[in-house]
């Protein structure tokens, strides 16, 4: 081999180096390192007349805003000063080769940061622009540990839509009067559904529709007539998909999950936990009223209880009287809480921009096909106390994909993979199809018990993957916002009922499908996604309703290194927490 190798002449070498430098230079010159420090402490907060101590970053709720430009390196030094383990996830950031900074719950890519410990998340933000967010990814801590992560285009690169006059991050959340950690702990003990939240919030504020909500706890967006505002929306709620609307104002969606979309208008948005959306709102030139209500309310088909409240924020025109009658603003019309048709109409509107500058690189052929049945199931009660649990028919609630309920490992899967020591940590046999096919959206099978395991799908580098995610109605059909770490995927098809491999494939959109990191498996329906494994590591895919994640609605892809040096997982940082 050595004998066949040709040597580059010095002149040739010089030219090659010069070329590389020239091509890389603008990028290098522009890319910066942005450093943040996250001090996690307990902070005292009052909402709905309840004062309590909550985990918070730098004493703030919601947490601090992170702003980077595409191409930047981001370093977040985390100090854990609360009495609980914690990890942070940079939701939607691809983490190319830097899986050590991904941070998902308990032991997928790292051991947790223990009380008193520190860890620096260190990664680059490449090929993404728009709104993402960060959140704790341990148990239900993200109820209060979250904030926006804004990715501006590189300096001098305009948006592919008219520049808004102002940009406003707007995080939709969920407030619990109780301690969310106690809520999930109790649910897991009894086997039943958890207690639900007490309010929805806008940037942490519940607004005037709730009893005992201070007037100062209302989020107000002050606008000038005729100006255009870009709302950077994030659904940070724990367990609820949400409808969102602004009375008498139409919204234009321009971006989703840090990818541009073909702009489209809507009166009501649907946004699932984990998803982000940038929308343009143009203030009327001569508004018919000095203030308008902004509303969020849940979308759900759960058989259990849910927080069936509506939260209000205020769109207030400049010059409006200081104390406009906040409590009496007419709310915008929202669909009924279970209006699955409205949700399907809305999600059908998303298309990639698919322009010359932002092409949609949709895979047209597929190397590996998967079919995952997604939904709730049950575990036997096995309670030695009184022999009955509070799940369906005295069982315990569980959730699964292909009937496997994910067991959280006790040691980092990524570490195990890096050291090629899998035994006792994971098994590489997650099923590609359900073990027993059945009528997924029809009569449920007799046995609804799930199996358990830390089972993953191993994939070679550069494999084109298609996954059809099929909702099941085993314990009531309900939509599941599935989130994939480490990748954006194309949503090539969706529909109601059972997926039909013979006919549904013909209806796929392979031209301009939307690219996202979180997509809802429709209630009693299916969705097909495609991605190419260009990012080595261990990547969890899970339902972003935290209660379902706690019940095991997750699996992981193990993507092997590619042959080239720049296709390999980087070594772990020296400060990575030990188990
Ligand atoms: Cu936003 Cu695995 O999460």
Describe this structure in words.
- This protein has 579 residues and is mainly beta.
- The protein folds into three domains: 31-159, Cupredoxins -  blue copper proteins (Immunoglobulin-like, Sandwich), CATH 2.60.40; 161-352, Cupredoxins -  blue copper proteins (Immunoglobulin-like, Sandwich); 368-567, Cupredoxins -  blue copper proteins (Immunoglobulin-like).
- The protein is built from five helices and 32 strands.
- The chain has helices spanning 10-30, 180-190, 340-347, 413-418, 546-550, and strands at residues 33-47, 50-57, 66-69, 73-80, 88-91, 118-124, 130-136, 146-152, 166-175, 199-202, 220-223, 228-235, 241-246, 251-256, 259-266, 268-271, 276-282, 291-299, 311-317, 368-379, 396-401, 404-406, 451-453, 456-459, 464-471, 480-484, 489-496, 515-516, 518-521, 525-532, 537-543, 554-559.
- A six-stranded mixed β-sheet has the order 10-9-12-17-14-15, with no helix packed on it. A six-stranded mixed β-sheet has the order 21-20-25-30-27-28. The chain has a five-stranded mixed β-sheet with strand order 11-19-18-13-16.
- A hairpin with a 2-residue loop joins β14 (251-256) and β15 (259-266).
- It is globular.
- The two termini are 44 Å apart.
- Residues 1-8 and 17-27 have low confidence and may be disordered.
- CU-O-CU linkage binds at residues 89, 91, 104, 135, 137, 274, 483, 485, 540, 542, 544.
Fraction of residues in β-strands: 35-45%
Structural class: mainly beta
Quaternary structure state of the chains depicted: single chain
Distinct ligands: CU-O-CU linkage
Name the strands of the widest sheet in spatial order: 10-9-12-17-14-15
Evaluate the radius of gyration.
24 Å
CATH topology category name of the largest domain: Immunoglobulin-like
Q: What is the name of the CATH class of the largest domain? A: Mainly Beta
Q: What are the low-pLDDT stretches, counting only 5+ consecutive residues below 50?
A: 1-8, 17-27
Number of helices: 5
- The CATH superfamily of the largest domain is identified as Cupredoxins -  blue copper proteins
CATH architect. name of the largest domain: Sandwich
